[in-house]
Amino acid sequence: MTAIMPTGVKKPKQKASVEGSVGKIATAVIAKLRNEIFTSLGSLNSAIRKAVKEYNDRPFQKRDGSRSAVFNTQEKAYLRALPSVPYEVCEWSYGHKVGKNSHISFNKGQYSVPSRYIGCKVDVKYNSRLVFVYYNRSEMARHEILPKGIVNGVRTDESHLPFPLKKNKQAEDLIDAAREIGPNTFGLIRRMYDEAKVKEQSTQTVVAILAIADTFTPDILEAACKK
């Protein structure tokens, strides 16, 4: 990859040199091929590549080497590979609150973020392949976007989860927490997981229900679950 450097202001000196080089290459190629007849784009491109290579391999008149030699010995080392995936224009979605299960809801799916951001509002940048999550303009999570048509899907990076939810034990830990509150709460949470096609789809709702015990009291939650 080559960095694009702007020319100087007011009286740029680079433009004439660049245009001069382009003009010399164009003249060398056009002059060499002016009498040739091509019957396909492929044969034309092949002839152009050959003419450009011959021009670059031609020795300098006033110093040692050639354009090809300068490129290979001085410039090539500074080039970087092109990105492995094509560039895509991204869109933004703002103000997503991080839930207690360390996930955000976005476009009918859930994506994890580091647990230290629980309760914060974050922004989402996305394209057809990836979802990037930002807090205060700094990226703090990224995931492959869920396939179209998937509703309530979940993308989770285990390193993002608070300690009690790590190692794929979300459901088991939450069921244990419900059991400690009381039989009614345990029965409701157990039933929610049993009826869910995918356990992870119920986790956010379960976390919200159990949070009632912290917001109010375990007795209030137990009484509500009895109803």
Structure description:
The model has no long low-confidence stretch (mean pLDDT 85). The chain is 42% helix and 16% strand. The protein has helices at 14-33, 41-57, 67-75, 170-181, 183-195, 200-215, 218-226; strands at 91-97, 103-106, 109-112, 121-126, 130-135, 138-144, 153-155. The longest helix has 20 residues, at 14-33. It has a four-stranded antiparallel β-sheet, with no helix packed on it. A three-stranded mixed β-sheet has the order 2-3-7, covered by helices on one side. The protein is built from seven helices and seven strands; from the N terminus they run αααβββββββαααα. With 227 residues, the protein is α+β, with helices and mostly antiparallel strands. The termini are far apart. It has three domains: 17-78, no CATH class; 83-162, no CATH class; 169-227, no CATH class.
Q: What is the topology?
A:
Elements: H1 14-33, H2 41-57, H3 67-75, E1 91-97, E2 103-106, E3 109-112, E4 121-126, E5 130-135, E6 138-144, E7 153-155, H4 170-181, H5 183-195, H6 200-215, H7 218-226
Parallel strand pairs: 3-7
Antiparallel strand pairs: 1-4, 2-3, 4-5, 5-6
